[in-house]
Amino acid sequence: MRKLPSLSALRAFEAAARHRHFGRAADELCVTHSAISHQVRSLEGVLKVTLFEKQGRQVNLTDAGLRLLHSVQQALDMMAEACSDAAHPGMRGSLKISAPAELAHRFFPRVIGEFSQRYPGLTVHLLVHDSDSNEINPGADITILYSMGDTDWTRYWAVPFRAIDFFPVCHPSLLEGEESLQSPADLVRFCLLHDDQDGKTWATWLGTHAAALPAPARNLHFAHSGIAIEAALQKVGVCLADTLTAGDELKSGRLIRPFAVSVPSPGNYYLVAERRKRTEARLAAFMQFAGLAQYLCEINSPIPEN
Length: 306
Fold this sequence. Notes:
- Helix 1 crosses helix 3.
- Helix 7 (about 200-210) links the parallel strand 8 (about 190-195) and strand 9.
- The strands form 3 sheets. A 5-stranded mixed sheet has the order 4-3-5-12-6. Strands 9-8-10-7-11 form a 5-stranded mixed sheet, with helices on both faces. It has a two-stranded antiparallel ribbon with strand order 1-2.
- The protein has 3 domains: about 5-85, Arc Repressor Mutant, subunit A (Orthogonal Bundle), CATH 1.10.10; about 95-165 and about 265-295, 3-Layer(aba) Sandwich (D-Maltodextrin-Binding Protein, domain 2), CATH 3.40.190.10; about 165-265, Periplasmic binding protein-like II (D-Maltodextrin-Binding Protein, domain 2), CATH 3.40.190.10.
- It has helices at about 5-20, 20-30, 35-45, 65-85, 100-105, 110-120, 200-210, 225-235, 245-250, 280-290; strands spanning about 50-55, 60, 95-100, 120-130, 140-145, 155-160, 165-170, 190-195, 220, 240, 265, 270-275.
- It is α/β, with parallel strands linked by helices.
């Protein structure tokens, strides 16, 4: 039999010690201030030591309290990790995702940060490859590639994303004032932000929706759309984007679509992985958490609910 103090008392002590304040500890644990005080006094009685010294509204740890805090925090972390392992088997180790630069820059950072909080036992690595690469990263569990559809991935589990469209996006301030952006004809007064070096993507959109428009005088070319979107956020000009690369900015209102019209992408994104990995819990959990299922055309293996 292990001789241990009350777990509630240890949790109350750890929260109070971390905050250096009984009231804030009570708020975190959803109990009253007096409940925290009672638990701490109970723990001090069991251990026969003084853990806190009061200084006004703040409390400071004694030497005994400092020694105990370190061990209690380690123990609580170990218990939390063990419970996470029990609830989510297979969610330990590492998960490596290789994505083109534009998605690595815009789509994945927030998702990976939230995912790592949900599954602290799993270390996520975000790898970046060139936007025009069709090579599967051998060091990654999941590789996301952009292809025109002429790539042979028959030896792999390859799932196409749903078709995407390109449309102009800009900072909301560009729609204000006398010289604002109101119609495609107004683009001639604005800088066009390109995610390619030959301007083909903008040329396709302009040829479809503004064929009579003179060539805009100002153009900036970037290595990928993630940087072009960043320039749009800085009010530099107007860029072409899609719901994957600019989805968060459009939802938050940091970027807007000045026109509803779009053009279909000539290619598509694909999620590619080794066939033997398609049913791994960590891959399925990440795809579910990241919302990738809504972007994919077909999932032939089940994705478990979290």
